[in-house]
Amino acid sequence: xxxxxxxxxxxxxxxxxxxxxxxxxxxxxxxxxxxxxxxxxxxxxxxxxxxxxxxxxxxxxxxxxxxxxxxxxxxxxxxxxxxxxxxxxxxxxxxxxxxxxxxxxxxxxxxx
Length: 112
What we know:
By secondary structure, the protein is of the alpha+beta class. The chain has a domain at 23-67: YefM-like domain (YefM-like fold, 3-Layer(aba) Sandwich), CATH 3.40.1620. It contains four helices and three strands, in the order αβααββα. Strands 1-2-3 form a three-stranded mixed beta sheet. Strand 2 and strand 3 (62-67) form a beta hairpin. The longest helix has 9 residues, at 42-50. The relative contact order is 0.10.
């Protein structure tokens, strides 16, 4: 026996019936709405999501999508150096410092 879902063409053919791995306890704790209900009550569903609830959208009784609240990112403090930087930090390097910077790295461990 073969199963086709809706008007999907053969590339979406499945040899077995659809099965979703959804924790039944999760479905009890969140509202599940079919597509038509979700379309007519979209503003209400967004209000539920805004207040922290999760909403599942189902197609023909089968869970397809989950609406969840977007958590805004926290503000990060710029900078990574603790303390104060010297006033000349952004100035070009002097000749002596530049020579040391460009010098080859010499390992402190002896090579065999």
